[in-house]
Specification:
The structure is a single chain. The chain is α+β, with helices and mostly antiparallel strands. The chain has a single domain, classed as Glutaredoxin. The strands form four sheets. It has a five-stranded mixed sheet with strand order 8-7-6-11-12. The relative contact order is 0.24. A hairpin with a 5-residue loop joins β11 (about 185) and β12 (about 195). The protein starts with a strand and ends in a 14-residue tail after the last helix. Mean pLDDT is about 85; it is low at about 1-25 and about 25-45. The longest helix is centred in the middle third of the chain and has 14 residues, at about 95-105. The chain is built from five helices and twelve strands. α1 (about 95-105) packs across α5.
Length: about 230
């Protein structure tokens, strides 16, 4: 049985799996409603992101960066990977999330920033050209990895491993509509997803969680099944 939990006892339900939150984006000008500001505790005893129990391991997931370099979803020793499935023409969810990442990283020391890798995996490779995707992610995180594959089976398999989902279709007006999981995943140096921040998590909460994770704190969670 998979369980998810979040700070202050909030539990996230899923459309395609417990803990999955889908955020819809469209090519139009409409805004996506964000959750109201959280009432953060000064010294929380739990993390703001949600955790799955047992934990999920994504060490078997490898995708190509735009330069062809294979990227495996495992952090460097002692580091963390922040992994996000999105696309460059997303009007609201993606830029908001990437802005939160930029600010959360800026609050860390240079030494700690160097321990964090950031991956943006395109779910819209037909429109996200390699140059466009790389320009997008490096605008927020100069060292960020632009990851793109036109192999739909490989992309879908990677999303499934994270518990993410995405759809892309043309509406009746001929406009492209894309829906995708708005979660930002934190992966450690064993390939284990430590926690995920759903879209709507406030930037200070992401920053605080990241600081604690870099300091070696970990949320309480059962290990992945394969590690038992």
């Amino acid at each position: 049985m998979v369980r998810t939990s979040r700070a202050r006892g909030v539990v996230f339900a899923s459309l395609v799996g417990i803990g999955l939150v889908l955020s819809a984006c469209s090519g139009g000008t409409g805004d996506v409603e964000q959750s109201s500001a959280s009432t953060s505790l000064p010294e929380p005893t739990e993390f703001s992101g949600y955790v799955r129990s047992p934990a999920t391991n994504v060490a078997s997931v490898t995708l190509p960066a735009v330069d062809g370099t294979p990227v495996t979803m495992v952090a460097d020793p002692g580091g963390l990977r922040l992994v996000y499935f999105g696309y460059t023409t997303c009007p609201d969810v993606c830029p908001t999330t990437m802005s939160h990442v930029k600010k959360a990283l800026a609050a860390q020391s240079q030494a700690d920033r160097d321990r964090v890798q950031v991956d943006m995996i395109s779910i819209d490779p037909s429109r996200d050209t390699p140059d466009k995707l790389e320009e997008y992610i490096t605008r927020f995180v100069p060292s960020g990895n632009a990851i793109r594959t036109e192999d739909f089976v490989l992309l879908r398999s990677a999303a499934d491993a994270f518990g993410a989902d995405f759809t892309s279709r043309n509406n009746e007006e001929g406009q492209r509509e894309v829906s995708h999981t708005g979660d930002l995943y934190v992966v450690d140096d064993t390939g284990t997803i430590l926690l995920a921040w759903p879209f709507g998590t406030e930037q200070p909460d992401i920053e605080r969680d990241l600081t604690r994770l870099l300091a070696g704190e970990r949320p309480a969670v059962e290990p992945p099944m394969e590690d038992r």
